[in-house]
Design a protein that fits this description.
The protein is mainly alpha-helical. It is built from 5 helices and 2 strands, in the order αααββαα. The radius of gyration is 12 Å and the shape is globular.
């Protein structure tokens, strides 16, 4: 788990907002301090680890998964995800 991964997950969680966000990698990168290519690569890795999932696959829009929520809540350890 890297700082980029954490920033992406926290943005999608939208703590302090009423609802979680659903965003594509470009919109994610526009809202955090990482460039689009970096965010795109990390979004794919987060999806492969099950932390985020497609909200709309045809549009490339992602949302936080149940596993991603559990990770952010401290219920899942990052080392378990890397196996």
């Amino acid at each position: 788990m890297t700082p980029v991964d954490r920033d992406i997950l926290e943005l999608l969680k939208n703590d302090g907002g009423v609802h979680e966000l659903v965003l594509n990698p470009r919109h994610i990168s526009e809202n955090i301090d990482w460039n689009h290519q970096t965010v795109r690569e990390h979004v794919l890795a987060l999806r492969n680890h099950g932390l985020i999932e497609h909200h709309d696959e045809s549009k490339g829009i992602y949302r936080l998964s149940d596993l991603g929520r559990a990770y952010l809540a401290g219920e899942v350890d990052a080392e378990e995800l890397e196996e």
